[in-house]
Structure formats: structure tokens, C-alpha cells
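Duplicate of #3305? Posting structure anyway:
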């Protein structure tokens, strides 16, 4: 029976983790699949079995039914027990996923992301200590910092990928090729075959040069937004102690999120442009 309880508890925790990742909070599952509840229920049923007392078993099951009926809907229990646990679990899962995604980043970029996460935790702590912030409104605003951290990681990964691409390309060599094929096309004269080949090679080289320019353009925009998030998190951490309302925090976070969406749009446009360059001439 102990093994079945452990297996049931493990399965319950995994289910809670999956639901939490999907932004659902399965209070009923957590109310049942926790060691305190399972220990009391198992103890009552074991005592009933050892004493051959069916009334004790019925009493244990009745109390369990009452617990599962009322505990998940209790706002006080949610605030004291369930929500903090869900938040810890969510942050742990997010940290694990973030570490997996950052595995390919340079040590410098990983350290920068780590610093952003530390500032986010500082903002959370200072906001929780500010008596002007209502708990429910505070959670809504702090959820935006999660989105900003995710966006920071996303942009850092994209920048790293683009930088690696630029390092692998000989830009000066491409420019020399462009001039060479331009000259070859001009020198071909009436030789249509030679001129055609030179022009096709020139078109390919120009496409590659355009790709480099589009990547450089995105990098400038994305790096600026990364710096803005970094500096804004520092500013918010400095200001949050004296803020009088979550709306003051909301305005700054919304502005950052708007900037992130603009960068994402730039990235989508860049990816579409780069994809078009990869199509045959």
C-alpha cells in the first residue's frame, strides 16, 4: 500500500506540474496529492483495518470527502498553502526550461540572463514588502516580469544565433565577389552565355549581402531592447519601494512589453526576408 501511495503521489505531482505549465491551478489535485493529507487518510484506513472497525474507515473517508469538498475553494488556504506552492513550482519549472534553452549561449550571455532573473526576484521581494500593493493586483503585474524575462532569453538566443552566422561569413570576400561579377557582366559584351552566368552569380552574391544587412539591422534593434529591459529592471527595483500603486509599475512594464512586441515583429519581418533570399534566383 505504501508503494501505491508513493506512486499515486508522484503521479499527482507530475499532473500538477503539467497543469501549472498550462497556467491552470488544479487545487483539487494539490489538496489530495500532498503528503499530509495522504498520511492522515492512510493512517485512518490502516487503523480501521487493524482494529476491524468499519466506522473508523467510514469516518476517515467522510473527513476526506469534506476536505476535498471545501479545501480547494478556500481563499484563505489558497493564499496560505496552494498559491505559494504553485508559484514556487512554476518558477522552478521555468528556471529548468530556461537553463535548457540557454545551454548554447556564451558564458557572458548566460551571466546576463542570470542577472536579469536576480533583479526580477528582487522586484518581487520589494513589491511584496510594499504595503500599498494589493496582493491580487500585484500578482497580475509581476506576471508581466515573467513575460519580459522569457522575451529577454528569446532575444538573447536569436542574437547569439545571428552573431554566429555573421562570424562564419566573409563579408569582405562577398564584396569582392560582387565587384568581380559586376565587372564580368560588364566585360561579357555580346557573349550572352557569359553575361548570363555572371549576372546570376551577381544576383546570388547580392542576396547574401542583403541577408547580412538585415541581420545587422535586427541585431541593433534587439540589443537596444535587451539593454532597455536590463536598465528598466534596475530602475524599477530602485523605485518600487516608494510606489503608491501597482499602476505605476504597470505603466513601465507595459511599455517594455510593447517594445518587445515591436522587436518580435522586426524579427518576423527579418525571418521572412531571409527566407525569401534563400529561394532560388
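Output from current build:
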Amino acid at each position: 500500500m505504501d508503494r501505491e501511495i508513493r506512486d499515486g503521489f508522484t503521479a499527482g505531482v507530475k499532473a500538477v506540474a503539467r497543469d501549472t505549465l498550462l497556467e491552470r491551478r488544479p487545487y483539487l489535485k494539490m489538496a489530495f496529492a500532498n503528503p499530509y493529507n495522504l498520511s492522515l487518510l492512510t493512517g485512518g484506513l490502516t487503523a480501521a483495518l487493524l482494529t476491524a472497525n468499519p466506522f473508523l474507515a467510514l469516518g476517515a473517508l467522510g473527513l476526506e470527502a469534506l476536505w476535498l469538498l471545501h479545501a480547494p475553494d478556500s481563499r484563505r488556504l489558497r493564499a496560505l498553502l496552494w498559491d505559494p506552492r504553485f508559484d514556487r513550482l512554476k518558477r522552478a519549472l521555468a528556471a529548468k526550461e530556461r537553463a535548457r534553452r540557454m545551454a548554447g549561449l556564451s558564458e557572458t550571455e548566460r551571466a546576463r540572463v542570470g542577472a536579469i532573473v536576480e533583479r526580477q526576484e528582487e522586484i518581487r521581494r520589494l513589491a511584496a514588502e510594499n504595503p500599498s500593493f494589493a496582493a491580487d493586483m500585484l500578482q497580475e503585474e509581476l506576471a508581466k516580469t515573467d513575460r519580459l524575462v522569457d522575451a529577454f532569453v528569446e532575444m538573447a538566443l536569436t542574437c547569439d544565433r545571428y552573431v554566429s552566422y555573421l562570424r562564419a561569413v566573409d563579408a569582405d570576400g562577398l564584396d569582392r565577389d560582387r565587384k568581380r561579377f559586376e565587372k564580368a557582366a560588364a566585360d561579357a559584351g555580346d557573349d550572352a552565355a557569359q553575361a548570363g552566368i555572371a549576372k546570376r552569380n551577381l544576383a546570388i552574391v547580392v542576396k547574401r549581402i542583403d541577408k547580412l544587412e538585415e541581420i545587422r539591422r535586427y541585431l541593433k534593434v534587439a540589443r537596444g531592447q535587451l539593454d532597455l529591459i536590463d536598465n528598466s529592471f534596475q530602475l524599477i527595483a530602485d523605485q518600487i519601494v516608494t510606489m503608491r500603486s501597482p499602476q505605476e509599475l504597470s505603466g513601465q512594464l507595459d511599455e517594455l512589453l510593447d517594445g518587445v512586441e515591436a522587436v518580435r515583429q522586426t524579427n518576423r519581418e527579418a525571418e521572412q526576408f531571409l527566407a525569401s533570399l534563400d529561394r532560388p534566383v
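Confirmed duplicate; merging threads. DSSP finds ten helices and no strands in the chain. Residues 19-23 have pLDDT under 50 and may be disordered.
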